Amino acid sequence: MTDPISDYLTRVRNAALAGHKVVEIPASKMKLELTRILHEKGYILSYKLVEGTPFNTIKIALKYHPETKKNAIKKIMRISRPGLRKYVNAENLPRVLNGLGIAVISSSKGLITDKEAKQLNVGGEVVCYVY
For the segment 46-55, what is each residue's pLDDT rounded down to a tens digit? Predict the structure, then answer.
């Protein structure tokens, strides 16, 4: 696998479009931080790190509207990829849907959202957009 973050985003996107309640993803520190950010911002219901003998996995419970059954994640897309990295400085941080969505930035402070990066005045690699 050449791009594990893209695989993570694709698994979450496909599970949400298929209406699944839970999706399992092979774990890594970056994927766990990305999951934590999605949980804090209300895009997923909950998550749990399942430690196994061959490898660890992350179980993610997806969030849906109770009446309309629409998923909380309308779109999740990879921005910086292995073939074309996308870096921004603190002045040029992206705004997703005029502030309604989030951009996840990999910075020197770790994985943070665009709003946190603006407060900390740091730039970095734009990992993905979520709205």
Answer: 999 999 878 9
State the Cα–Cα distance between residues 42 and 25, nearest whole angstrom.
19
10 Å CB burial of residue 92 (0-12, 13-18, 19+) is: exposed
Quickly count helices (H) and strands (E) in the chain. Answer: 3, 8
Instruction: Check if the beta carbon of residue 125 is closer than 8 Å to that of residue 103.
Output: no
- DSSP characters over 42-64: TSEEEEEEE--SS--EEEEEE-B
Strand order in the sheet with 44-50: 22-26, 57-62, 44-50
Name the residue among 22, 30, 3 with its Cα closest to residue 84: 3
Q: Which residue has the tokens 């790190």?
A: 49
Joined together, the tokens standing for residue 17 give: 């479009």
Residue with tokens 């970056």: 30
- pLDDT tens for 77-123 read 999 999 999 999 999 999 999 989 999 999 999 999 999 999 999 99
Single pTM value for the model: 0.93
